[in-house]
Automatic annotation (TrEMBL):
Region of interest called Disordered, as start-end residue ranges on this chain: 21-82
One GO cellular component term: endoplasmic reticulum membrane
Origin species: Oryzias melastigma
Protein's name according to its UniProt entry: Small VCP interacting protein
GO BP annotation list: negative regulation of ERAD pathway; negative regulation of retrograde protein transport, ER to cytosol; negative regulation of VCP-NPL4-UFD1 AAA ATPase complex assembly; positive regulation of autophagy
Domain of life: Eukaryota
Biased composition (Gly residues): 70-82
Classification lineage: Eukaryota, Metazoa, Chordata, Craniata, Vertebrata
Record field: transmembrane: none
Skewed-composition ranges (Basic and acidic residues): 21-40, 48-62
UniProtKB keywords: Lipoprotein, Myristate, Palmitate
């Protein structure tokens, strides 16, 4: 029985203090974002180039949507009666 007491006395020093919930939540969010980024660019040699290409494609699509809406021609179709 005398051997258990020194073990219990030193156990208080080995306790790991957990961070407050807000810090823990931030750490988990950062870790999740990092994992998502790693899986997104898995197998890609140059992720920056892929990101630039994606943004350029989005801009082209946005510009195409803007010009097609402002054209007002209804899609360029003509209606003739006669």
């Amino acid at each position: 029985m005398g051997m258990c007491l020194p073990c219990l006395g030193g156990a208080a020093d080995d306790v790991v203090v957990t961070p407050d919930p807000e810090t823990r939540r931030r750490q988990l969010a950062d870790a999740a974002e990092k994992r998502q980024k790693e899986t997104t660019y898995r197998g890609v040699k140059n992720p920056e180039a892929v990101e630039r290409k994606r943004k350029k494609q989005e801009e082209v699509e946005k510009q195409a949507m803007t010009t097609s809406v402002s054209g007002g021609g209804g899609g360029g179709l003509k209606w003739q009666v006669g």
